[in-house]
Design goal:
The protein is of the alpha+beta class. The protein has 3 helices and 10 strands, in the order αββαβββαβββββ. The strands form 3 sheets. It has a 6-stranded mixed beta sheet. Strands 1-2 form a two-stranded antiparallel ribbon. The chain has a two-stranded antiparallel ribbon with strand order 9-10. Strand 7 and strand 8 form a beta hairpin. The termini are far apart. The model has no long low-confidence stretch (mean pLDDT about 95).
Amino acid sequence: MANLAADVRRMTREEYHRLGEEGFFPPNKRVELINGIVYEMPPQDSWHSGTICAAQEVLQRVFTEGFVLRIQMPLALDLWSEPEPDLAVVAGHWRDYLSAHPETAVLAVEVSFSSIRLDREEKRLLYAAAGIPEYWILYVKTKQLEVLREPQDGDYRSRKLLKPGEQVAPVAAPGSSIQVADLLP
């Protein structure tokens, strides 16, 4: 029996948007474009939503002047990728992004339960390659925070796994101190 090679057809952000405008993606499905591949995101359970709310509450207190906190909104990272991190802190004001999505963030945060592989592998490498200085993964199941920093050569050089009793200070807000437990419901 012959081995058949399957080709993956990657699409650009422009093609992705065109398909969205034409109604190709069902309105009740959450999708993200990562490295030219459209990923269907799993439905959010109440813990996922609650964790986003908890982290949002904390990050809004830390990032005030000169930053905007975006919740599940696109980042136009490159020609092939437009992820929608659960939370992203970007420089500026929301009015700065009326004509185009931000192309970077000072902090990207993913709440991870059923999307662990995508968050730890695909998105980690994507955010590092885009030069996002800090990437956090909040693990709902184990109640831990993975802090990834120092993007270099397409990956993060620094990785710390923090527990609820520990603290973290974002790189873009070094004078702040966040209790990991406060990021979790």
